[in-house]
């Protein structure tokens, strides 16, 4: 079934008047470099569609010429005309975008009779920006996570806080726990933290824990700013996945 699906994609790309590719290279647990290639093409209805085209193992070196050789062999083997390629999106690695011997430069030299545009994927910069490694915003974020984890990390605190929310008829019945693994986590946690600030302040005080920042106007304003920022990050993530 998998081969049949791949053949359908390849056939559709062959018939498309134009197509573009996005690619990323990574190393698997067996220390084999794997080149993943996505393709965006036009269906017969002229509606754009995006699919995974192939996963190509790169034996030995992963230089620009090695990547070019692997890509060209794949396209030639499956009779996909490179003449219809209009753009390439990459992560900006030197082997890909190097000025002289990068894959993109070598491919453009090979396809001299057409204009191939190259783009840098925004997701990497987006992720780095979202990490907030330094500055005041990072301090605010760390404290926000600490407050949430004070409630969620201990089972007793969690149960008591849920009871407080139920009694106060708050807009939420629980508080999410932050985790780095879940990519929407920060935005959702901050959204709930802001909505439940009065209940959280009352609860932590009743448990003998003091977070004076909860009454600091500047800290609360920066917390709201962070929440808005991560809401935009989450919206962008969902949009990039085609879910919005």
UniProtKB/TrEMBL annotation:
InterPro entries documented for this protein: RNaseH-like_sf (IPR012337)
Top-level division of the source organism's lineage: Eukaryota
PANTHER family given in the database record: EPM2A-INTERACTING PROTEIN 1, GENERAL TRANSCRIPTION FACTOR II-I REPEAT DOMAIN-CONTAINING PROTEIN 2A-LIKE PROTEIN
Protein name stated in the entry: Uncharacterized protein
Organismal lineage: Eukaryota, Metazoa, Chordata, Craniata, Vertebrata
């Amino acid at each position: 079934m998998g081969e049949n699906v791949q053949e359908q994609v390849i056939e559709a790309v062959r018939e498309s008047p134009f197509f573009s590719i996005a690619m990323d290279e990574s190393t698997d647990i067996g220390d084999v470099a794997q080149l993943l290639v996505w393709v965006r093409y036009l269906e017969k209805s002229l509606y754009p569609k995006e699919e995974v085209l192939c996963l190509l193992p790169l034996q030995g070196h992963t230089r620009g010429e090695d990547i070019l050789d692997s890509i060209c062999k794949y396209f030639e083997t499956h009779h996909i005309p490179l003449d219809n390629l209009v753009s390439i999106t990459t992560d900006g690695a030197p082997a890909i975008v190097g000025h002289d011997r990068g894959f993109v430069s070598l491919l453009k030299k090979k396809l001299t009779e057409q204009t191939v545009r190259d783009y840098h994927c925004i997701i990497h910069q987006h992720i780095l920006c979202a990490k907030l490694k330094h500055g005041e915003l990072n301090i605010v974020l760390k404290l926000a996570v600490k407050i949430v984890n004070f409630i969620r990390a201990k089972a007793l605190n969690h149960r008591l806080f849920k009871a407080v929310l139920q009694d106060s008829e708050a807009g939420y019945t629980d508080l999410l726990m932050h985790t780095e693994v879940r990519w929407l986590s920060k935005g959702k946690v901050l959204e709930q933290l802001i909505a439940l600030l009065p209940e959280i302040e009352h609860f932590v005080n009743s448990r003998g824990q003091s977070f004076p920042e909860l009454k600091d106007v500047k800290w609360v304003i920066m917390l709201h700013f962070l929440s808005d920022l991560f809401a935009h990050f989450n919206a962008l993530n969902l949009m990039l996945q085609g879910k919005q």
